[in-house]
Amino acid sequence: MKRILPILFAALLLSACHSSKEMDPSFVRGDGLYLQSGGKTVLRYDPLSWQLAYSADRREFRVFSDDQSSYYILSCKTLPTRVGESITADLEWSSSGGSIHKESGISFSVKQIGDDGRIWLWNKKKGIGLVVQVLQK
Questions:
Q1: Contact 85, 122 (CB under 8 A)
Q2: At residue 18, does pLDDT exceed 50?
Q3: CB-based burial label for 127 (10 Å; 0-12, 13-18, 19+)
Q4: Is residue 102 a part of any domain in this protein?
């Protein structure tokens, strides 16, 4: 019994630890456009007070509040076209706190592509996920 208790205690500790870098399955079931970091939704697009921009030529997605205090910009080396592929991109975001976060040359896995042009991207190493949208003319 004395040998089992430390093993059970260690197992309990390990099972309680959940990496915030792992993608929560609900990430691809979420509505709208949003950015997650560290297991939390940092930014969420609100169609009443936010704007979207997309440039196929620059391979760039922009999601920003009307006052531009909160935003995220994804500049892709190649546009994501199919689930399972990996793309490289530069990501910049700022939330209402004012700090600007930048990730250059970050790799994203394409987790889902919706019929409405939304694309779910996830970076496991940094625990960053975001949803962008290809806007049709």
A1: no
A2: no
A3: middle
A4: yes
